[in-house]
């Protein structure tokens, strides 16, 4: 099974049908998506779009995914925020189900940790009622900032369909690595976002680096082979490699992401022949 996917952040608001075709043309069967254009991250000046508002676009995306053999491996955009109840996202969850999503991702940015844990539990219960599993992303600057806190959140929620999303940048920059992953029960991990970066940031803003300056796997300093070897082998390994400077210089998504797909497959092949 080809496990390599392409993450929503990597394509900088590329319209959904073009996004599906990009993945298929690169031989990838998995994508993640949000429901709308990401404001401020559109260097190619793609037209604004909304899967939330445009039923015809949803139907077109569903049709092209069926025709090209691509599915949505992760539904993005479910954040835990102050003064907001995740039950308000029920309509978005329903739209994700319409698109065939079987897994959504949550990010907590409410500084109240206890409330965040409780809201994650509510979201996981809502998703499970739709036969959808939930992953939770952690990293510097988030309420769930490191692996130990993430494990505490998973134990608080206490559901087998609520698992960790491992982003290789966030994992290493928050102080963990392959050995920490290997110590976890494999069933606790549900998804992988793959990229490379230096071990020590050269950027003044962590978020700007995360959102726009990640590197092709194998061109930075992260121990990616060791990390992948510590993870369950059946997981989707999806490329979250936004390269804003290249996009602003006119390098298109096929060229940018083609390099990433080739590198990811090379890493996975090395694991498979060991």
Give a brief description.
This protein has 274 residues and is α/β, with parallel strands linked by helices. The protein has 11 helices and 8 strands.
Report on the structure:
- With 274 residues, this protein is an alpha/beta fold.
- The chain has one domain (4-273): Alpha-Beta Barrel (TIM Barrel).
- Helix content is 41%, strand content 16%.
- Helix 5 links the parallel strand 5 (133-137) and strand 6 (162-167).
- The protein is globular, with a radius of gyration of 17 Å.
Chain-wise SSE layout:
Layout: E1 4-6, H1 16-25, E2 30-33, H2 55-68, E3 71-80, H3 90-98, E4 103-108, H4 113-129, E5 133-137, H5 147-157, E6 162-167, H6 168-173, H7 178-182, E7 189-194, H8 206-212, H9 224-229, E8 237-239, H10 244-248, H11 253-273
């Amino acid at each position: 099974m080809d496990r390599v996917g392409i993450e929503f952040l990597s394509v900088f608001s590329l319209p959904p049908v073009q996004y599906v075709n990009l993945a298929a043309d690169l031989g990838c069967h998995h994508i993640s998506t949000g429901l709308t254009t990401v404001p401020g991250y559109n260097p190619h000046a793609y037209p604004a779009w909304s899967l939330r508002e445009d039923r015809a676009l949803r139907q077109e995306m569903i049709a092209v995914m069926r025709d090209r053999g691509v599915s949505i491996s992760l539904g993005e955009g479910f954040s835990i925020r102050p003064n907001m109840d995740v039950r308000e996202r029920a309509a978005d969850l329903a739209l994700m189900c319409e698109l065939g999503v079987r897994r959504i991702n949550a990010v907590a940015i409410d500084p109240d940790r206890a409330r965040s844990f409780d809201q994650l539990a509510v979201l996981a219960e809502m998703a499970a009622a739709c036969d959808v599993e939930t992953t939770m992303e952690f990293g510097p600057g988030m309420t769930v900032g490191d692996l130990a806190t993430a494990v505490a959140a998973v134990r608080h929620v206490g559901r087998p369909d609520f698992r960790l999303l491992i982003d290789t940048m966030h994992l290493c920059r928050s102080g963990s690595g392959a050995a920490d992953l290997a110590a976890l029960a494999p069933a606790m991990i549900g998804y992988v976002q793959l990229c490379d970066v230096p071990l020590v940031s050269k950027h003044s803003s962590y978020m700007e680096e995360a959102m726009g300056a990640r590197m092709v796997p194998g061109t930075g300093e992260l121990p990616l082979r060791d990390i992948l070897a510590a993870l369950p082998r059946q997981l989707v390994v999806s490329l979250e490699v936004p390269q804003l400077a290249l996009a602003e210089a006119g390098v298109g998504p096929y060229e940018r992401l083609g390099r990433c797909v080739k590198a990811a497959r090379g890493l996975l092949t090395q694991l498979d022949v060991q």
